[in-house]
User: Which sequence fits this backbone?
């Protein structure tokens, strides 16, 4: 039982580090005047948004976050 908790804790640690890295690799949202000017290009290119690296990183953030939550609940149950 203790080895199972240790393995899940290590997996949770790796998921935490992975989610930090994925969030740091995402580009920030434009703000201010430069965001207003660049907004036209964003809407023009929005149809290819699913293929961009930011979309893939956002999808990875959701999946890794869900896995982190599941591992946390499993650790709580094993507690």
Assistant:
């Amino acid at each position: 039982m203790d080895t199972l908790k240790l393995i899940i804790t290590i997996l949770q640690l790796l998921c935490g580090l992975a989610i930090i890295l994925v969030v740091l690799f995402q580009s920030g949202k434009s703000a201010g005047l430069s965001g207003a000017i660049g907004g036209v290009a964003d809407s023009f290119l929005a149809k290819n948004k699913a293929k961009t690296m930011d979309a893939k990183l956002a999808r990875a953030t959701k999946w890794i976050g869900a896995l982190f939550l599941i591992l946390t609940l499993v650790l709580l149950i094993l507690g």
User: Anything to note?
Assistant: The CA atoms of residues 26 and 53 lie 8 Å apart. Residues 53-78 form the longest helix (26 residues).
